[in-house]
């Protein structure tokens, strides 16, 4: 099988068009490896190949699955330098784990005086730290990603949400002198206990949904199945819903405008992700439960 690989744009390109010889039963991955062999910088994860407006998916075994035959033209797009999704997640969650201790323990240098932390501040510090430690451990031991890599330039964009909003912005607002012991930052024990109880329930529920999703995908595969069980009977993305509840508990505990702003941004972003996943589930699985919402039970 002889194929022509051409760029998607009309711009001049010193590498393309490229003629590739493959066996008749070649796979999409065989084609990507052949391109990589000819042009070393375009490793398979960096390539996006299309034919008749269809993206060629590595998960499909043969080029013939797309009706591709000898002398056909495949369009190529360079996705840019890539980085593993797992690495991106680890970097995202590392930011708050570094930033919050700096603000909590370094009050003399940040606020100009030593802060005697209120119980609310101390509890919030440990809740935030535990949340992101949990996320790091899930990234290493629980998550199985449907895509291996993403463009390396997205690290900065993806990290802003965590490093700035739930890192610098939240830490500065919560651990300051205005919420220290003996100020308006004091909370009744029952109030703190109620917020912590909701947070613990939401975090454990979030973990359960992540484990459920992991168990749907055998190691080394990209298999997609309809998720069922705890939370999934009501919404397509209960992991997002439980995370929203956990951050809502922190917002109520701190009564901080910074926590509320972060929560609003988090809800907005997770709503976008949830609706996208919900639509994908419904288009991919004809027997997908019709009574499920995308993110919030009985609402959205």
Automatic annotation (TrEMBL):
Residues 1-76 form the Ubiquitin-like domain. It is a multi-pass membrane protein. One of its GO terms (cellular component) is endoplasmic reticulum membrane. It is found in: Endoplasmic reticulum membrane. It comes from the Eukaryota. Signal peptide: none annotated. The chain crosses the membrane at residues 160-178, 190-209, 230-250, 256-275. This is very-long-chain enoyl-CoA reductase.
